[in-house]
């Protein structure tokens, strides 16, 4: 029997409470389509393993078997707030849909960040991400990097609730597609950039939160019935109060009266209960540091860009509608359907741009300015013509919200694009050619692999080959091996400096105080190596190799012991062409960067103190993000 291409599973389009409201009950259920894979009861597959242990109740719920004939013929279990097996089915469905969106945009497989335990890595197989639908009895849901798991909570609604909740009723976070997509995005982002957990500036925690919300919001536009419903209600406008601008409404309303949705992207309710469109204010970003609030400004910038793109690309449809029906007439059913298709297309393209930009950012110390440059550069690479104005819309929106990158002269597309490297010396070009020749055959073999386990373990081998070339063979063999005719050491030093690295010992000070390091000249690390092969909205096929190189200083000075400072770069290569396509670096030799990061982590500059209660254990001054605290919605 031929293996099916897809598995069809029923689920909510919004939170469960919308099924009990007359206006939305007909559009709050849909049938999701995910790629077929062989799964065992749980469900448990190649990517995800659902484990339904409920410690607070002392229960282990029987796992659903998606392969049972009665389940398959009905396209999964019916949506139900009271059936744990549907909870298992739903969290698996939205989780896999999110993974598939990332894989399509990235042009490669999602491979979870490796477990810390060495025995996992010796098994020559990959590990799934574990998901606990009823893991805690709290108003919380979080990604746990140490456990390679996502834990969803459930809780009792407050006595003064709003919306479809009732006082004291149970709310399950695993039934909100927004919360599931948000937590899955944390896990996927951690698999791509594990050092985005290091809270090195005011944007890091906010980026994790904001980016996860952006993915959840844009994924909503995959359900055409939902789009048509809202466009019919608002006469085709998306800048009005719609369900698209609100995330996790049921949870937010269950926490307290007047809370509204957990996140609001484009508007809010004032003290009198009136909905007010949020207006961009470039001053607000400079004074907002709480991670959710700062991240919300980023979400607003992306969503405003989406609304502007929708308005710009549907002007002709509205003009034709007015010509045919008159200025005051309601838009027709056919018009609603056409507008919904356009909104879905724009949201899908913007979703892919946002995901692809993750390959064009530094491998640590992310800022929103870095990400804006990544959005522009990634889209220039994938869709040079940009006939529909995506790049300009994003730039315009970020500017309106006061989100700017450092060290650019203007906010033009040309200024924001990361610089292609075109001014290398002959020695540097020879070094780069040599490094490409070292890994070219391995990378070609890597691109042909389909199995995620093979990709992971073979990538480790290629990283080792490249790291050995960087550490052991340079610069002693440059003249002979890579035909460097000029001073090999000088060419090597120049090349490494260009990558944000150092080949010489450096010294730093903080407020005039000398800093001591455990290793005065840390080893260069090939942090990641990712071959990509993807198609753009303009039909272009792009094959690249993305390599991240880092060096790490560990401070020995007693006063700051535990502080870590990194430098390095993301290098984007085309193996068939000379040179580096793009180089995105953070300079390890920069005393300014060092002192700025240390001041932030010590709470000497705005941002850290406000974020600390969400991010750190009290005794862990220089620790990583703590998603469990970041997502404690009762704080």
Topology:
Elements: E1 6-12, E2 29-35, E3 48-50, E4 53-54, E5 59-60, H1 69-73, H2 84-106, H3 118-121, E6 129-136, E7 141-144, E8 149-156, E9 170-172, H4 177-192, H5 204-219, H6 224-233, E10 246-247, H7 249-255, E11 263-264, E12 267-269, E13 275-277, H8 291-313, H9 315-325, H10 333-356, H11 368-382, H12 390-400, H13 413-416, H14 426-447, H15 452-471, H16 478-481, H17 488-498, E14 508-510, E15 513-515, E16 525-535, E17 541-554, E18 564-573, E19 582-586, H18 591-601, H19 608-615, H20 627-630
Parallel strand pairs: 3-6, 6-8
Antiparallel strand pairs: 1-2, 4-5, 7-8, 8-9, 10-11, 12-13, 14-15, 16-17, 17-18, 18-19
Question: Can you tell me about this structure?
Answer:
This protein is of the alpha+beta class and 635 residues long. The chain folds into two domains: 9-416, no CATH class; 426-601, no CATH class. The protein is 39% helix and 16% strand. The chain is built from 20 helices and 19 strands. It has helices spanning 69-73, 84-106, 118-121, 177-192, 204-219, 224-233, 249-255, 291-313, 315-325, 333-356, 368-382, 390-400, 413-416, 426-447, 452-471, 478-481, 488-498, 591-601, 608-615, 627-630; strands spanning 6-12, 29-35, 48-50, 53-54, 59-60, 129-136, 141-144, 149-156, 170-172, 246-247, 263-264, 267-269, 275-277, 508-510, 513-515, 525-535, 541-554, 564-573, 582-586. The strands form seven sheets. Strands 3, 6, 7, 8 and 9 form a five-stranded mixed β-sheet that branches. A four-stranded antiparallel β-sheet has the order 16-17-18-19. Strand 14 (508-510) and strand 15 (513-515) form a beta hairpin. The chain is globular, with a radius of gyration of 25 Å.
């Amino acid at each position: 029997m031929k293996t099916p291409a897809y598995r069809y599973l029923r689920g909510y389009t919004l939170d469960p409470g919308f099924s009990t409201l007359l206006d939305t009950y007909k559009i709050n259920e849909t049938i999701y389509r995910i790629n077929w894979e062989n799964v065992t009861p749980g469900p448990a597959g190649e990517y995800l393993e659902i484990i339904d242990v409920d410690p607070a109740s002392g229960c282990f719920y029987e796992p659903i078997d998606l392969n049972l004939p009665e389940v398959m013929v009905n396209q999964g279990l019916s949506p139900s707030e009271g059936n744990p097996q549907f909870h298992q089915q739903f969290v698996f469905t939205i989780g896999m849909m999110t993974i598939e969106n990332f894989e399509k945009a990235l042009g490669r497989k999602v491979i979870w960040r490796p477990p810390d335990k060495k025995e996992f890595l010796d098994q020559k197989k990959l590990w799934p991400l574990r998901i606990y639908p009823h893991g805690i009895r709290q108003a919380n849901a979080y990604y746990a990097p140490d456990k390679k798991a996502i834990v969803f909570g459930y809780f009792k609604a407050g006595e003064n609730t709003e919306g479809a909740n009732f006082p004291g009723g149970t709310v399950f976070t695993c039934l909100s597609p927004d919360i599931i997509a948000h937590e899955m995005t944390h896990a996927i982002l951690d698999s791509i950039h594990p050092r985005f957990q290091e809270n090195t500036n005011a944007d890091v925690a906010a980026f994790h939160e904001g980016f996860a919300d952006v993915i959840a919001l844009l994924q909503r536009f995959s359900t055409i019935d939902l789009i048509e419903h809202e466009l019919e209600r608002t006469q085709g406008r998306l800048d009005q109060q719609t369900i698209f601008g609100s995330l996790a409404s049921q949870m937010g309303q269950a926490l307290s009266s007047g809370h509204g949705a957990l996140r609001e992207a484009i508007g809010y309710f004032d003290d009198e209960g009136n909905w007010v469109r949020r207006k961009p204010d470039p001053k607000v970003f400079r004074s907002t540091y709480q991670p959710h609030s700062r991240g919300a400004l980023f979400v607003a910038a992306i969503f405003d860009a989406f609304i502007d793109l929708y308005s710009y690309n549907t002007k002709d449809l509205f003009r034709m509608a007015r010509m045919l029906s008159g200025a005051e007439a309601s838009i027709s059913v056919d018009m609603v359907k056409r507008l919904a298709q356009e909104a879905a297309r724009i949201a899908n393209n913007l979703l892919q741009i946002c995901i692809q930009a993750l390959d064009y950012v530094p491998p640590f110390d992310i800022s929103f300015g870095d990400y804006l440059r990544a959005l522009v550069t990634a889209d220039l690479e994938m869709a040079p013509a940009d006939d529909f104005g995506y790049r300009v819309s994003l730039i315009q929106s970020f500017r309106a919200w006061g989100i700017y990158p450092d060290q650019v002269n203007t906010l033009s597309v040309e200024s924001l694009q990361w610089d292609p490297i075109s001014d290398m010396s002959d020695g540097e070009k020879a070094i780069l050619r040599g490094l490409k020749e070292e890994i070219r055959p391995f990378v070609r073999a890597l691109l042909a692999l389909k199995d995620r386990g093979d990709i992971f373990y073979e990538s480790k081998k290629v990283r080792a080959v490249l790291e050995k070339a960087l550490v052991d063979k340079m610069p002693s063999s440059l003249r002979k091996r890579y035909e460097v005719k000029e001073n090999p050491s000088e060419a090597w030093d120049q090349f490494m400096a260009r990558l944000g690295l150092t080949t010489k010992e450096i010294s730093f000070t903080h407020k005039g105080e000398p800093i001591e390091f455990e290793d005065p000249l840390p080893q260069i690390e090939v942090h990641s190596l990712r071959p990509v092969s993807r198609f753009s909205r303009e039909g272009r096929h792009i094959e690249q190799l993305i390599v991240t190189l880092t060096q790490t200083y560990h401070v020995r000075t007693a006063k700051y012991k535990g502080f870590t400072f990194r430098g390095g770069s993301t290098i984007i290569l085309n193996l068939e062409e000379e040179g580096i396509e793009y180089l995105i670096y953070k300079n390890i030799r920069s005393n300014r960067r060092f002192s700025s990061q240390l001041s932030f982590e010590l709470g000497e500059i705005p941002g850290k103190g406000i974020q600390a209660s969400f991010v750190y254990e009290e005794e862990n001054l220089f620790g990583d993000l703590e998603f469990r605290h970041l997502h404690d919605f009762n704080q």
